[in-house]
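G.,

No rush on this.
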Amino acid sequence: MASVKAVILDVRPELLARRQTTGEDRWDEMWGGVLHLSPAPSNEQQRILDELVAHLVPLLRETSRGTLREPSGQG
């Protein structure tokens, strides 16, 4: 079965506790009082990020236009 998108109106405390215990909550975000439970980045997303970083870091160094920082995962 392919993955699907879903809306859960009431999230059980047990689900939130499990996500926190396993670290799955690292990408969860609160937007306007609505909790968004996001999956971990996929291997393809990580590959694209790696290529983007490999391109941007030398460019930023050459032009002194800024610094590239890795997201901390801390909201």
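When you get to it, here's the other one too:
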Amino acid sequence: MKVYFGTSPRIKEGSPELVNKVYDLVVKWGHKHTSPWVRNVVGNDFYKMTDDELDEHHRKTTAAIKSAEVCIFEVSSHSLSVGYLVNFALENGKVVILLTQNKSLPTIFRTIQSDKLITVVYDATSVEKSLREALEKAREVSDVRFNFFVSPKILSYLDWVAKHRMIPRSVFLRDLIEREMRKDKGFRE
């Protein structure tokens, strides 16, 4: 899989060995990084970048996220920039793995509702097992986008379901199809 891995330079400076370990594990398991930025970033240098350098960094980062199949973010500390990137990745249909060393996510991430969001609480001793499980789950949740037209009446119903049952329309439709698949003896054979 192609993987984008990112975090805040402050998190990297606070836990460089863990950030580097995550980066290295992705490579060890045969995946390919879409950007080496997190491996090479130095906080002081990053925060001294000019506006032009920051613009170029932003362009490269969004391109790396778009080319990834899965995005991993270390989010143990608050970072609005990382929050923006997480949202950008989800809006672009990417499966996102949030890694945190805390019992709960920073506030910015607690309200995100997505079936493509995987949260992992880890520490130095569990990072390898936790990340491997998260990447396996990401592989399972990676979906192929399928668009189709519906009547206004069907759309109204799907909007009602999303509002009253608190589930995304796509999840509701997937559940309906999976239920039919289980009932269809011809398909199961």
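The beta strands are 2-7, 32-33, 70-74, 95-100, 117-121. The mean pLDDT is 91.

Enjoy the weekend,
O.
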